[in-house]
Structure formats: structure tokens, C-alpha cells
Design a protein that fits this description.
Length: 53
């Protein structure tokens, strides 16, 4: 039976004064004050995640 490929999908979530990146794989980035930094964390995660298994 073939395994399904699951794409990593990231979002940026605001929690009070902070933002953090989350991924459908369960990864969560650190809380950031700058929304742009949270997006950068998400981009870095997608770049290092490689092909989904």
C-alpha cells in the first residue's frame, strides 16, 4: 500500500501581542513580536522540512 504525501502548510497566529508560526505537521515556532519574523520562521521551517513522508 502506498503512503500518502502530506504537504506542510504553515500559518501565523496572533496571541495577544505576539505572533507565532504553526504547521500542519505539529511544529510551532517561538512567539515573536514582529509578524514578519514569525513568517520568516515559517519559511525557514518549510525550507528545512524537505519532502513530506
Amino acid at each position: 500500500m502506498a503512503q500518502q504525501q502530506h504537504a506542510h502548510t504553515t500559518t501565523v497566529v496572533e496571541q495577544g501581542r505576539f505572533c507565532l508560526a504553526r504547521c500542519t505537521c505539529g511544529w510551532r515556532g517561538p512567539a515573536r513580536r514582529a509578524r514578519s519574523k514569525a513568517r520568516s520562521d515559517a519559511d525557514d521551517h518549510l525550507g528545512s522540512a524537505g519532502p513530506a513522508a
